[in-house]
Amino acid sequence: MIYLAHTAHWQFLGLVAGAVAWILILATTGLNEWRLWHVADVSVVNSGVAWVGIWRACFYSHTLPGIENCRSIGVSDAFAPAEISVAQVFMVLALISGLAGNLIAAVAMRMVYFSVEDRRNIRLVFVLAGALYVLTGTICLVPLAWNMSSVLNNRTIDFPPEFHLPAAPARQRVGSAIGVGIIASILMLISGLLFLCYRHAWVALRTEAPRDTRDPKDTRDTRDTRDTRDTLHGPWTETAPAQKTTLPNGDNRGRDNPAFYSEEVS
Q1: Buried b (16+ CB within 10 A) or exposed e, 94-125
Q2: I need a labelling partner for 15 at 20 to 30 A (CA). Which of 87, 185, 219, 266 fits?
Q3: Burial class (CB in 10 A: 0-12, 13-18, 19+), 242
Q4: Does residue 84 or residue 48 have the better pLDDT?
């Protein structure tokens, strides 16, 4: 089985970046500082600054019962501008697609690092994870760019009277939530590109034993084969040790033993 762990280090980094980006998208969705409204009348908004998010608008006041006063903004509210309503829907979709992308990316990395059998769908899993990451980053960028454009153009919002906020602020500033969301979107896009650029090395490593090239008709047993070759002087020759002959009187001087000679037949 081919070894793939060394081919997906950048994709593992993309998975980490995607997880961090999803957490930042979650923080962006919940933060109120999408728009910073500076109001001229500080009789109610004593701090002079109100935080307008996609779910609620808040400000500090000492004249109202609560120190921090917040009013929720619904997707069906008539006064809510289109960019805020779109942001509510798109940010939720980004959270769902980002979570799905992280899960599929984790499955892809598990297939690379731990799977040893079925890897036929590994490229499909990587492409799907990358596509979800890119989709998440794109979905997140749309409401961020739209709301940032509204802030830079000083667009107004017709708040109801219970919000205690003027329709047109003295000036607006881009809140920290948009900056966090842009960073999260960039990380998501980078993660998606890393997964989409993954190239699987379709080279099978031959780990099986060498093939037996002997003739199947050859029935000789070769299980006990010994290397009888001398690497310096050629093949070894195994010979039986020479038998020593001993004369009857104990004389052993290499002479032939007459006892072994057969009688001559006349």
Answers
A1: bbebbbbbbebbebbbebbeeeeeeeeebeeb
A2: 87
A3: exposed
A4: 84
